[in-house]
Amino acid sequence: MDKILCGVDIGGTKLSVALMTTAGEIIEKCIDCDHVHKSECGLTDQVKSNISRLLKNNGLSESDLLGIGMGCAGHIRFRDGFIITTSNLKGYKCYPLRDSMQVSYKVPVILDNDANAQAFGEFKFGAGRGFGDLVFLTISTGIGAGIIINKKLYRGMTGTAGEFGHTIIEPDSDLTCTCGNKGCLMACACGMALPNLFRKKIIAGMTSTLDLPADFDYSKVDGRLVKKGLDSGDPVSTEIVLDSGRYLGIALYNIFQALNPPIIVLGGGLLSWGDIYLDKIRKTFFELARDMMYDPIEIRVSEIGPDAGVIGAASLVLEQC
Ligand SMILES: [Zn+2]
């Protein structure tokens, strides 16, 4: 039997573990939602236990695995295999997650940032198939990214390359990012920015046609509410989607100038805003790039779907082969 891959995606709400073929087909997966408050050791034990169960369920053993790939949000020092920081989990400052797993396995364990994992997943199995270079951006609560150059992830010195969410696109903005700087892409155009963007529109005198209570708590504005507003013709929601699309278009233009990739793949929850959002991203990008673009560049939507995290994590094993 061909060797298979194991993927582990450690997110802020879900811990997903899956067995996958080298063709990207999931054999079986399990999802837990009780991992967030566990200690570092507790989480590692939970992952090991889930892997054992999945292998047993399928009549397999560790020797059937090519390796175990792990994706985790946050700053990951790839070469040392530890989490520098992650805002999704408590603790985990400089935690050697890879080695705490590796001691229990003979097959290689690989740990990387979740956006890097998804980027490699898109390259192997999704919208980036056939390309040697690509940039992937995931736009959800935050913004993550991965860069692939010559069929390998480009990680930079520490492993944190591709933090486009912290590139500054509006230096005079009053919107503060999680990093403390003002005007980062993440502060202006992702899920965590939406409460501020909505509040600013209302303060500026716009009226939302969404049926919101008078004492509505704007911190509850999320991508889903804005989508509801967009679908019902709410002018506040529509402007937020267009503003966000413009900022993303500027960010893509900056990426184009820095890296000149043949394809940029976009994923993440806010893509559910649909064509109006994507059209604004593309329009802004192409207006800025104009005749500086000598070869066509593709801006495509992720094709992996809801299992992108765990498929990406498993695909990390293939990068090392
Ligand atoms: Zn920032």
Keywords:
321 residues; alpha/beta; 9 helices; binds zinc ion
Question: Would you mind describing this structure in some detail?
Answer:
- The structure is a single chain.
- By secondary structure, the protein is an alpha/beta fold.
- It has helices at residues 40-57, 97-102, 114-125, 185-188, 194-203, 223-231, 235-259, 275-289, 308-319, and strands spanning 4-10, 15-20, 26-32, 65-72, 75-77, 82-85, 109-113, 134-139, 143-149, 152-153, 263-267, 298-301.
- Strands 3-2-1-4-7 form a 5-stranded mixed β-sheet. Strands 10-9-8-11-12 form a 5-stranded mixed β-sheet, with helices on one face.
- The longest helix is centred in the last third of the chain and has 25 residues, at 235-259.
- It is globular.
- The site of zinc ion has 6 residues, from loops.
CA radius of gyration is 20 Å
> Quick one: how many beta strands?
12
Strand order of the largest sheet: 3-2-1-4-7
Describe the sheet with the most strands: 5 strands, mixed
Strand residue content: 15-25%
Give the H and E element order: EEEHEEEHEHEEEHHHHEHEH
Q: By helix and strand content, what is the structural category?
A: alpha/beta
Indicate the mean pLDDT: 94
Ligands bound, unique: zinc ion
Share of helix among residues?
25-40%
Flag low-confidence runs: none
Q: Count of DSSP helices?
A: 9
Through-space gap between termini: 18 Å
So what's the overall shape?
globular
